[in-house]
Amino acid sequence: MRMRLVLKEMGVGLRRNLSLTFAVVITVAISLALVGAGILIRYQVNEMKDFWYGKINVSVYLCGPTSTEATCAGHAVTEAERTAIRAKLESLPVVTQVYYESSEAAYANAKRLFRNSPDLIKNIDPAALPESFRVKLSDPKRFDVIQSAFAGQAGVQQVQTQSDVLKKLFKLLNGFQLGAFFFAVALVVAAALLIFNAIRIAAFSRRRETGIMRLVGASRLYVQLPFLLEGAVVGLIGAIGGAGILVGIKWLFVDKALRPNIASINFIGWDWVPTVLPLLAGGAVLFSVLASFVTVQRYLRI
Amino acid sequence: MIKFESVSKVYPTSPRAALADVDVTIGEGEFVFLVGPSGSGKSTFLRLVLREERPTAGKIVVMETDLTRLKNRRVPAMRRQMGVVFQDFRLLPDRNIAANIAFALEVIGRSKDSVKTLVPETLELVGLEGKAQRMPDELSGGEQQRVAIARAYVNRPRLLLADEPTGNLDPGTSVGIMKLLDRINRSGTTVVMATHDSQIVDSMRRRVIELDAGHVVRDQARGVYGYAP
Q1: Phi then psi dihedrals of residue B193, to 5 deg
Q2: What is the value of pTM for the model shown?
Q3: Does the model's ipTM exceed the 0.85 cut?
Q4: In what helix (H) or strand (E) does residue A79 lie, and over which residues does it extend?
Q5: What pLDDT, on a 0 to 100 scale, did the predictor assign at position A268?
């Protein structure tokens, strides 16, 4: 097998349909970037889960003198109710630690938290801040156990967790991820059809050559190889482009736009580059070769 | 060299058989004309020998190989021992003459050295020495057909098939092509040529197999075109 000649054939094929080659490269690149973005969002969600779940407290707010909830029965939490609540919290296996925070401590925390907005602090009445139990869980994902256990409990005004907020955020991110994968699937289909057409046109425009090859007894592999290599090269260029887009998106959105402005979220770094990018690129090349192979089997008589 | 045993070929698009129960034996080194009107089955005969088609019924043996039992992956190896020439030359317009001929060797993996010696040798044989660097469209029809013959012959096949090789050429040029095919035949290559050029068949006085509507209606050792038994 004379590889130089096979490569020359391939080059001729790629140049002959330059516009279609470009279309395939761009489609492969964008679909790859989208698949990659979906994976990165997944990584980001996991990163945030690990980070946040380590810090999550469930807060069980107790009734104050002005609480209107039915469980408060129009009065502040009584000593007996407080003791009962603490005992119930400590009896739950999922609870590892219980802290008590009085109204005064809550006021002190609020003062510290809003130290840059004195007007806001001025308007807070220390008595209006409810006392609470801060609860640490062995498995932060099971905060709903607390919620259901204290629903209707006398003296409890509200059970709250940061998880509620996080859950919404995760839902949003999962939505993004789903959207990215959905568009990626649509684009992958488009890429397959484009490769299919590109190789079909390449096969058609080289029918003289392949016809002669067939008649003089060139092997099946020799006839087909330039087309498969065309698929591989297009896939590879698309993969490189897609990787570039992905790295660009992560740099622009995460490193330049989000990270400097949101300090409380742990963003993903670059450790996915050596694992995810080769996998995606390999997948893109394999996919392109496969699409070419299927086309060649159908449209190239041997 | 070629043996057809009760060979029939029916194309799925046509109700009539292109070849019907054909028995033909062609020996090593023969020169055979395949004659008959258009649609009589000449091209089908050649396509079956090339194994571009498989027969609907019967058995075909070419160069000691049973084509009806030949595996697909063995077909290229068998075709390397054959050469084919067509009415429309089928040269590659973007390559010069030498590259057109070299193409046939390169795609079957022959070495650079053998290409370097075989191409000029074959160009000389077909009488085109000195035109190696010309492009196909710079040559006359007759010269282009010589290039096509050179390409078919450059690998020194045992069997040369020609489908109306003089169909696009004027009588004077055709004579030159026939002389060339005759020379190739005298070097030991079996030649099977489909034609309806009566002048050529009459002047060569070689074996004639006549087909009509898929049947062999005549097989004559030193025949002429319009012979009526």
Answers
A1: -125, 120
A2: 0.73
A3: yes
A4: helix A79-91
A5: 86
